[in-house]
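The instructor's notes for this session suggest beginning with a concrete chain rather than abstract definitions. Hand out the sequence below and ask the class to guess, before any prediction is shown, which regions might be ordered.
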Amino acid sequence: MSHSPNRRRLLRALPAVVMAPGLTACAGDPLPLPPDAPIGPFDADATAEQVTAGLDLTGKTALVTGCNSGIGYETMRVLALRGAHVFGAGRTLQKATDACRRIDGRATPVVIELTDLDSVVAAAEWLRTQTVSLDMLICNAGIMELPQLEQVDGIEKQFFVNHLGHFVLVNHLLERVVAAPQGRIVNVSSGAATRQAPERGIEFDNLSGERSYDPGRAYGQSKLANVLFTLELTRRLRATNATANALRPGVIPTNLGRHMPRWKTWALENLGGSFTKTIAQGAATTCYVATSPALAKASGYFFNHCNPHRPGGHTENTDMATRLWQVSVELTAEYLSGTTSAPSPRAA
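After discussion, reveal the predicted structure:
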C-alpha cells in the first residue's frame, strides 16, 4: 500500500504528536498528594454542566477572560446557566458582546486586551464600579506557541499575555475577591508548565525571549508562571477567606492551537481521540474549582481532571514564585498604582 508524501510525513510524525510535551494526559510519576487533599467525585470524562449540577450561583459574580471561544465561552455559559452574573472579557467589545448574547443567563461584556495594560487597568476600574465583590476571577485567556518571537514592551509575548496581563488584572481586582464571602481566583495553566518549561524554570535573564527562542519552551514558561503566581497568591491570601488555585484543562482542539502547524492540528482533531477532551470536558475543571462547595478551603493546588495533582518540576518552587512576583511588580509597577493587593505575606 502506498502513501502520499504528506501522509507518510504525518504517520512518521504522529508518535511525536502523541508524546509532545504538554499534549498528553499528565503522564509520568506525579508526586504523592497530602492526606488532606480534596479528592472529588469527578474525573477526566466529566463536563462543566455535570460538575455544577444542582448548584445555585444566584447572587454570585464572576469574571472570565477569553470568554468568546473555547473553554472560556463554555465556562461563562455554564456559570451563567447556574445563575451567576458573569462578566465576559474579550479582546474587543464586539467579540465579548457577541459571546454574551449567545448564552442564557446574565452576562455583561467587558474589553480586556492583555497586551495593553492600560486596557487591563481600565477594565478593572470599570468592574470595581459594577460590583462590590467578585466571587470568581477566572484567568482563562491565553496564546500558545507563537511561531516567531514577538514582544510586548520588550517582553516575550506569551509571557506578557499569559502571565503579566493577568498579574495586573488580579492585583487590581483582588480587593473585590477578598470582599466576597469566599472569593476564588482560578488560573488556567497547562501540562506545559512541566513538560515544556525551561529546565531551570523561569528564565528571569531572558524574559525578552531573544536568546534561543523556542515556541513551546516560551509557552511552557508562561504556563509555569501561572502556577507560581498561584503559589504566591496563596501565601498572600492566607489571612483571608479567598483562595487561589491553578489547573490543567486537558488537551482540547480549540483555536488556542491556531499557531501550530496544520498537520499537527489535523492529527489532534482526527487522531487524538484517546487523549483529547471535548470543550465541555475541558471546561469542567475550571468550573469545578470555581464553584464546588467542597473546595471552600482549598488553596494553592494544581488541579487536573477535577482533582489535585502534583506534576513536579518547578510547580512547587516557592522561592521562584516569590521572585516571579517581585519581578512582575518591577515590570508592571506603573500599572499597579492604587492597588492595595500586593502585601508581603504574614509570617507563619
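Then share the key points. The longest helix spans residues 157-179. Residues 1-28, 341-348 have pLDDT under 50 and may be disordered.
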